[in-house]
Amino acid sequence: MKIAVDAMGGDNAPEAVVCGAVRAAQNYHEEIILVGQEDKIREVLKAHNAENTPGITILHAPDLVDMHDDPATVLRAKPRSSMAVALNLVKKGEADAIVSAGSTGALLSGATLFCKRIKGVRRGAVAPVMPCKGGQVLLIDAGANTECTPEYLLQFGVMGSLYMQKIKGIANPRVGLVNNGSEDSKGDPLRREAYALLKAAGEAGHINFVGNVEGRDVPLGACDVAVCDGFAGNVMLKTIEGVAKFMAGAIKDVFTANLGTKLAYLACKKGMDDFRSLFDQDAVGGAPFIGISRPVIKAHGSSNETAFMNAIRQAIEYKKSGMIEAIEQNVQHMTAE
């Protein structure tokens, strides 16, 4: 398997990207193509005595995608950028997946342009996995589609359910529709129509639909797949990230207030470390762009080398899982109905 890595994308590129790729090559034994400015990539490899790491190759791409570039047009305007070249490798079948921490909008636009959607899929969706009570929950969509139709939300539910089955090993994932109330009649026309479609899909045995879920119930484990439009999903994702940072800071302030609280921290350090690990996004890696005909993983812009290594692991798992084939079969079947 070959993974194309955008070595120049992200706040900590190329250092974190290259180091993460080296660790991934050592741990997962797949070929990784580092795409970007060759001299800078080689500088990092040399600095870490990793110039001869088995499985690592370099493909020179001189240009960069800037966060200020227009996401919809930048890859056409900069065909020699690291992101465009990496996507083109996947398009031509010279790589099996792509991982990038660069511009989210550019990656999503480029993935749709270069790799195309799976036949039958109306829209691809960004789907991060978040911690929740008792395990993890997949949020779909978290920002790719700010405007949706009920049919999009139905397909998000189907694709999200397949992801949790194939990747996370949950036999019968609970699919919930994020809404402003749990009652069947709640929500605007989009949510009410989507509810009807998801309910019908549940009755037909395509998914395990558990109804509407409120935003507060998602972190409490009300469902395994939380379906929403990209606007609501992105707001929810950023809110949860903000609350997690606030809690971490507040807990630190409490335990560093005086000598007594510092001693108390030592007494419960193991529990606090376990609590902190629940919110460790480095262990997650990134978010898949589900619905595209090739594995596309969006790593967080601030990813360190551990996060990037795990984003590459995600790409490998996604490719091996048969997710793309399963989506094509299930979505086409439902579309035909």
Automatic annotation (TrEMBL):
It comes from the Bacteria. It comes from Butyricicoccus pullicaecorum. It is an enzyme of class 2 (transferase). GO terms for cellular component: cytoplasm. This is Phosphate acyltransferase. Catalyzes the reversible formation of acyl-phosphate (acyl-PO(4)) from acyl-[acyl-carrier-protein] (acyl-ACP). This enzyme utilizes acyl-ACP as fatty acyl donor, but not acyl-CoA. The lineage of its organism: Bacteria, Bacillati, Bacillota, Clostridia, Eubacteriales. SUPFAM superfamilies: Isocitrate/Isopropylmalate dehydrogenase-like (SSF53659). Homodimer. Probably interacts with PlsY. Belongs to the PlsX family. The gene is plsX. HAMAP family: PlsX (MF_00019). The keyword Lipid metabolism applies. Its EC number is 2.3.1.274. It catalyses: a fatty acyl-[ACP] + phosphate = an acyl phosphate + holo-[ACP]. Keywords: Acyltransferase, Cytoplasm, Lipid biosynthesis, Lipid metabolism, Phospholipid biosynthesis, Phospholipid metabolism, Transferase. Pathway: Lipid metabolism; phospholipid metabolism. GO terms for biological process: fatty acid biosynthetic process; phospholipid biosynthetic process. Pfam families: FA_synthesis. InterPro entries: FA_synthesis (IPR003664), Phospholipid_synth_PlsX-like (IPR012281). One of its GO terms (molecular function) is phosphate:acyl-[acyl carrier protein] acyltransferase activity. It is found in: Cytoplasm.
